[in-house]
Write a structure and sequence with these properties.
Chain lengths: 286, 757
């Protein structure tokens, strides 16, 4: 097993595309090292991206923020600008693992690990986050919801890696929130996760909304029907009822050790409603 | 035989006992200097790894180790062929340590290697070829009891049934306890409630995986360093399995990162010794967490049926229970203590408890804190709560009305001596927690619990050093702060300061036999031996003083740490301190030491009553524990902080067992959650500060009145939490763990039932 720690994106790309065997990217290592230890993977090449300066930066850009792929979650939690703009994304990143884990774990790693239960992914999806992908053919941009293909599978081609996430700016009277269900209070994996982002007009009616669900299908789902239940309404009781019903209806969960199908379907609706209420409250304050 | 020279009178006043000094092992533990099982190394040491069955049940046709043996760096490979077969009482332990004809559960050890590195050892495991013939398996206790079930052992005929059955089954044993006539009792009842309950297997969840370092020399002498609750047990078992003289094996107990009963047997130790003997080099073997879950000893899963009858004015007329416990692939589930303890809190004229010990394709269970009792209490105390509710009586009043007290003939036979159940109930009722207001979706639960406690074989040595400090050697590994308690008791007897006593857990070659640290026995039994060893030393100290003064020995008394003339007639001498006498020892007869060895009896049982408030989210079924109070009888709390720690620890483990912990099996009979991510023990933020009240009803069987406290604390929580959750949710929960999907399903079913009415 070879370990490389390049200092430029282009070097990382050529290492990854040149490897004939199994290559894995190491950022925080909170998924990869566990997989290595348990014998789940035996890569021929590990490319550590933490030495690449542009991967380590958070930068302001067009009213939003660009977050490098090797920036740990804890830095998001300590970033006043991102906390103010996308509190839902920060609270999702702040739920990954534990305080110690968040000192290492990255939201790009969370995205590319492609677990259906990844906490930061529904939050990023509703934020309209854009992933910048570098590869042998150069750079391209993709909405984050297009990265995961299924459990443990991404849509990235050989030699490609996500180098940053762009969280866009947003209009006034906008708010977002992320909620997950776990039986405990922390150190757990989402049984259901829900992200909601919405914007209110001057009249208080919802002009735009996005709703995404985690852990209820093979990958995080962007649910337009759930968003439509909010758009054009005052996000009142009736709208929240429709939102909950649409969120539940979109679930395609499995029965497993973490929860039953019925449980996930019911709780997705409950959390969608609760997340929307928090997002609404935040929008009214902005 | 009980020794009549053990002081029967209970001491009343103390200067050291009851204070809260720092534990002697504390600094080492918080600085990382303490050495646990995996912290030991030896020159030339090899790394051992175990190959485990991937199947829940399979016949092992053959094992080919030739490729593994040929791998460079591999120094030994062992299989069933390296262990002599047995037909005695160690047979099950042997077969559990290394599979013979069949792999009986997923994770069952099939072979092991010792190699120059972990990487080589892992590679070698992959080169071992095992030819399995897959067999159908059974995981559930009720299914295993069916006449048409898959059989684990074709030579298992249910014991305790007359006549002995002529067909083999998975029921190893039937047992029955009780007295009176239950049917007559139920006929006298105004209200009878019967219900069935289920609990899932839980694991002790000790933070330190099993680990050992074994070294057997060319002369056949062996040393074993390991984390265990009982190194004498490890020595005797390993020596027998390896065919060694007991004297040729020395076992040293490392610091231990939790045991809770799970480290009262052997798993990897005989394997490491066999590998070392074969390789001629020391072998270190450390389980992974995955192996701990799959292949150590979780507790039983159970199915319990309970029926209790009461009169309208709150008198229990009869109690009956049928308990079915599966304890994994071998006989020995804790159903017997379950059946014995089920009704121990109640003074009943008519009572019967029947137990079935059942085998399934799961790892062989090991003891877990009050083995068998929490599940029985869950069932009985749930029905008791429901009955109190039905007759409109306060649940503590109801328990007080029926409580066991001194003179009660216990449901399992003996008549209780002085016990503290009534005192715990009264203290619970008076506690501000019990009358605090509750909010929406919140409920309060109460439950009581009992554990026998144990004494056992114990040997202690106490050495007076030249400077008047004291070295104390005990043979019981310290899993709950016992070293601090030993120092306190020695200091109390000798009249010296706490920090002038240093205590070690001595190895198996340094002391006579000691039973394992179990049955909440250490502060009681090793404590009593320490007191007696100190008194033995005091006699000798007085004799030395007599010699120094040249007066008769019986003219010297020991008071407040000094030898003094017994009275004016004895002569006029300045009192001699322990230090003075120790300094002169070389001139007065040589070293001074006290000893005590005995088989401790009369361990007083401990009772507890717990109060818990829970809130249930009606939309998600998620439970939050809001407040928890443990009230328990300690007899005499030697070190109150560590008594409180035992109370809190038992409650914390019980809460986890009640709410989320469970062994989850797939249809393939394989464990699906062998890690702390999906085996959900409570994390710190899941629990409120657990409040404690120490009740002290002295145990007449101990010179200070001590009762063991370690186990009783896990008996009430399953029921207390179930009673709180049921009250909060408005529906009776009868199946553990009360995970959110289960609670939500129960709430939906209740809603459906209400809508139908």
């Amino acid at each position: 097993m070879r370990y490389e720690a390049p200092e430029r994106v282009e070097t990382a790309v050529s290492l990854l595309s040149g490897e004939r065997g199994l290559a894995r990217i190491l950022a925080g290592g909170t998924d990869l090292l566990v997989q290595l230890k348990s014998g789940m993977v035996e890569p021929d090449l590990i490319v550590d991206i933490k030495k690449i300066p542009e991967m380590r930066r958070i930068g302001a850009e067009n009213g939003g923020f660009r977050i490098g792929a090797a920036v740990p979650s804890a830095e998001l939690s300590e970033h006043p600008g991102i906390r103010a703009l996308w509190p839902g994304v920060v609270e999702a990143a702040g739920l990954i693992g534990s305080t110690q884990i968040q000192g290492r774990a990255t939201i790009v790693g969370n995205l590319c690990n492609a677990s259906p239960a990844a906490d930061s992914v529904p939050a990023m999806i509703v934020a309209g986050a854009i992933a910048t992908v570098a590869g042998p053919q150069g750079r391209r941009e993709l909405p984050v919801e297009a990265i995961a293909a299924g459990p443990g599978q991404t849509s990235l081609a050989k030699g490609e890696l996500v180098i940053s996430i762009f969280l866009p700016g947003r209009p006034p009277r906008s708010g977002d929130a992320y909620l997950r269900f776990i039986p405990r209070t922390e150190m757990d994996i989402a049984v259901v996760g829900v992200g909601v982002s919405l914007t209110l007009g001057e009249d208080g009616l919802c002009t735009a909304a996005r709703v995404a669900l985690g852990a209820v299908a093979v990958r995080a789902l962007l649910v337009d029907e759930a968003a439509d239940a909010l758009i054009g309404t005052a996000v009142d009781e009736a709208a929240l009822e429709r939102l909950a019903a649409a969120a539940s209806a979109a679930c395609r969960p499995i029965d497993d050790k973490r929860g039953t199908k019925e449980f996930r379907i019911k709780v997705a609706g409950v959390l969608a409603r609760r997340a929307a209420e928090t997002a609404l409250e935040r929008a009214r304050r902005n | 035989m009980p020794r009549d020279d053990v002081t029967a009178e209970t001491r009343q006043s103390f200067t050291k006992v009851g204070t809260r000094p720092l534990r002697p092992d504390g600094v080492d533990k918080v600085t990382g200097r303490a050495r646990f099982g995996a912290d030991m190394a030896a020159p030339g040491m090899l790394i051992g790894k175990v190959l485990r069955s991937p199947h829940a049940h399979a016949r092992i046709r053959s094992i080919d180790t030739s490729k593994a043996e040929a791998l460079p760096g591999v120094k030994a490979v062992v299989t069933r062929d390296d262990f002599a077969n047995r037909t005695d009482e160690l047979r099950d332990i042997l077969v559990n340590v290394m599979a013979r004809e069949k792999a009986l559960y997923e994770g069952h050890a099939v072979a092991a290697v010792a190699a120059v590195s972990a990487a080589v050892a892992r590679k070698a495991l992959r080169l071992i070829e095992v030819d399995y013939e897959l067999l159908p398996h059974v995981i559930d206790v009720e299914e295993a009891m069916r006449p048409d079930s898959v059989l684990l052992h074709d030579d298992m005929f249910t014991a305790g049934v007359d006549p002995v059955p002529d067909q083999p089954s998975n029921v190893a044993k039937r047992c029955e306890f009780g007295h009176g006539e239950v049917e007559k009792g139920f006929a006298e009842a105004d209200i009878v409630i019967e219900r069935s309950f289920r609990t899932e297997a839980s694991h002790q969840g000790y933070i330190e995986p099993h680990a050992c370092l074994a070294s057997v020399g060319a002369d056949g002498q062996g040393e074993l360093w390991c984390c265990t609750q009982g190194h004498f047990m490890v020595r005797d078992t390993c020596a027998a399995l390896l065919g060694m003289d007991v004297s040729r094996l020395r076992v040293i107990a490392s610091e231990i990162g939790g045991g809770f009963g799970g480290k009262t047997t052997v798993f990897i130790e005989p394997v490491a010794l066999t590998l070392s003997r074969k390789a001629g080099r020391p072998v270190k073997l450390v389980m992974t967490r995955d192996e701990v879950f799959r292949a150590s000893g979780p507790t039983a899963s159970t199915s319990v049926w309970v029926r209790i009858g009461v009169t309208k004015d709150g008198r229990i007329t009869a109690g009956e229970a049928v308990l079915k416990y599966q304890g994994g692939a071998f006989a020995g589930s804790p159903v017997e203590p379950g059946a014995m303890t089920a009704f121990a809190c109640y003074d009943l004229e008519n009572v019967r408890a029947i137990g079935y010990d059942v085998v399934t394709n799961r790892p062989k269970q090991a003891a877990y804190r009050a083995p068998g009792a929490p599940m029985a209490a869950f069932a009985v105390e749930s029905v008791v709560a429901e009955l109190a509710d039905r007759i409109g009586m306060d649940p503590i009043e109801f328990r007080l009305k029926n409580a066991s007290r001194e003179g009660t003939r216990s449901a399992y036979g003996p008549t209780f001596g002085p016990i503290g159940l009534v005192e715990t109930l009264k203290a619970a009722k008076a506690h501000p927690h019990y009358s605090a207001p509750l909010g929406n979706n919140q409920g309060r639960g109460v439950a009581s619990g009992f554990w026998f406690n144990f004494g056992g074989q114990t040997c202690v040595s106490l050495n007076i050093n030249i400077d008047g400090t004291v070295g104390l050697a005990v043979g019981t590994p310290d899993i709950g702060g016992s070293r601090a308690s030993m120092c306190l008791m020695a200091a109390e007897e000798l009249g010296i300061e706490y920090d002038r006593v240093r205590v070690i857990v001595a190895d198996t070659s340094s002391l006579g036999f000691n039973d394992v640290t179990d049955g909440s026995r250490v502060t009681f039994a090793s404590g009593m031996a320490t007191i007696q060893a100190a008194r033995d030393a005091v006699k000798k100290l007085c004799a030395r003083a007599a010699r120094m003064w040249d007066i008769p020995e019986d003219a010297v008394v020991w008071e407040g740490g000094y030898a003094k003339p017994a009275g004016a007639n004895a002569g006029d001498f300045q009192p001699l301190s322990l230090r003075d006498i120790a300094a002169a020892a070389a001139k007065t007869g040589g070293p001074i030491a006290g000893h005590w060895e005995f088989n401790a009896e009369n361990a007083g049982p401990s009772f507890a009553t717990h109060i818990v408030d829970a809130e249930v989210d009606p939309e998600t079924g998620r439970t939050s524990i809001l407040r928890y109070t443990v009230v328990q009888d300690a007899g005499k709390a030697v070190h109150p902080s560590y008594v409180e720690g035992q109370f809190q620890g038992g409650a914390a483990q019980g809460i986890g067992w009640a709410l989320n912990e469970e062994y989850i099996y797939g249809a393939d009979g394989k464990l699906q959650n062998p890690g702390f991510l999906d085996y959900r023990m409570p994390v710190a933020s899941d629990l409120p500060m657990i409040d404690t009240v120490i009740v002290e009803v002295p145990n007449p069987g101990h010179p200070y009145g001590v009762r063991g406290v370690g186990e009783t604390s896990i008996v009430p929580p399953l029921a207390a939490v179930a009673n709180a959750v049921s009250a909060a949710a408005g529906v009776r929960l009868t199946s553990l763990p009360m995970s959110p999907p289960k609670i939500l399903a129960a709430l939906e079913a209740e809603k459906g039932a209400q809508a139908a009415e």
